[in-house]
Amino acid sequence: MKKVRYLSDTELKKLLSYIREKADLARRRGTTRAVVDEVIVQLLLNTGLRPSELCDLNIDDLITEHGRKNIRIRDISGNVLRDIDVTGDIVEHVRRFVRLYRRKGKPGDPLLVSERGTRFSYMSLYNKVKRIGRQVHIGNLHPRILRSTYLVRLYDSEQDLRFVQQQAGHASPRTTAMYAIAASERDLPVVSPDQADSVTAEQAYCPNRQVITVTHLKESAADRKKDVFMEGLEQTEKCESCAKPIGAGSGTRIDSGQILCSGCLKELRGT
Fold first, then answer.
1. In this predicted model, what pLDDT tens digit does every residue of 148-199 receive, in sequence order?
2. Which of 4, 73, 82, 256 is the S-S candidate for 182 at Cβ 3.0 to 4.6 Å?
3. Under CATH, what is the fold of the domain 1-235?
4. Phi, psi (5° rounding) for residue 211?
């Protein structure tokens, strides 16, 4: 089974410190690039969005109704796939960003736009996160690592496989088990992205969650590893850039672990 790559506590603190320092400087200078970088990293670390889902977010996909705070995920046709529960801190962070930097945007407009004023593409997002990784000296940093960091830490905190599966948007709990296994193998206490950024995260209690204990997880870890691996071989993949279906085995896995179709692979390589 493929090993899950996620940020250590030291790497997480270093990354958050760096993007906060750069964003604060940008706000004082009246520039936006580092502010957008900060929002991207914070959203990936605190929601576990897929890179393509982050690119597709619109301003009105941040929902604060009836005491709930969540982000609405849609497919390429605009159909709602799921809602992601988020803490108040990231909600306020994004709302402040919209108020200050996207104030002319309409509800259905993209939440994040490039310096050219267009919606972020997967390749732009990928290259931006890679650049941040080089600047902060975290090797081969890419969006999927930030998503993995969220999922591993979420399971370690909640011990609830079903909830993590819902947040991640996994079709099968066997996929989620990879992150649960990675969490159970951690030796050090978890520091969540919010805690690492010196912000106290809100704790939500959901009595309907089905709790899977670490003991139960370890008892069947070997079986889960085998099942996850086999499922990954048998299922039809989707390109993690354009989200178009591709036949099992016909995609190309790049160095970051993402599976791309031939068209997006050519775009990434510039050919």
1. 999 999 999 998 999 999 999 998 888 899 999 998 886 544 445 555 554 3
2. 4
3. hpI Integrase; Chain A (1.10.443)
4. -85, 130
